[in-house]
Design goal:
This protein is an alpha+beta fold. The protein has a domain at about 10-70: Calcium-transporting ATPase, cytoplasmic domain N. It is about 45% helix and about 20% strand. The protein is built from three helices and three strands. It has helices spanning about 10-25, 30-40, 75-95; strands spanning about 50-55, 60-65, 65-70. A three-stranded antiparallel beta sheet has the order 1-2-3, with helices on one face. Helix 1 (about 10-25) packs across helix 2 (about 30-40). The longest helix has 23 residues, at about 75-95. It is elongated, with a radius of gyration of 16 Å. The termini are far apart.
Length: about 100
């Protein structure tokens, strides 16, 4: 693992534990470094459910009742752009009222 980007309000160790809890079920080559980093930091793994992994889209699951999604920077930026466009449409529709 070379870089961890954490959302505001989240702690790096907490995010790593959540990610590793899902990644331990993945066969992706980058899953093992994430799991190893969590083990090296002596972080607790949590039960994960509803795991799904689609090529090119990343890994998703529910860990400790929280949705966890691990994806590439490219996919993340794509989803953010899509959500921004959706928000703009909603604002325009709301303003037209």
């Amino acid at each position: 693992m070379t870089e961890q980007i954490v959302a505001p309000g989240m702690k790096p160790a907490e995010v790593l534990a959540l990610a590793a809890s899902v990644e331990r079920y993945s066969k992706h080559p980058l899953a093992q470094p994430i799991v190893s980093a969590a083990q090296s930091a002596a972080l607790a793994f949590h039960e994960a459910s509803q795991i799904s992994e689609r090529p090119g889209e990343g890994l998703r699951g529910i860990v400790a009742g929280r949705p966890v999604e691990i994806t590439s920077r490219t996919q993340l930026l794509k989803r953010l752009r899509e959500r921004r466009q959706h928000c703009r449409k909603l604002r325009a529709a709301w303003s037209a009222r």
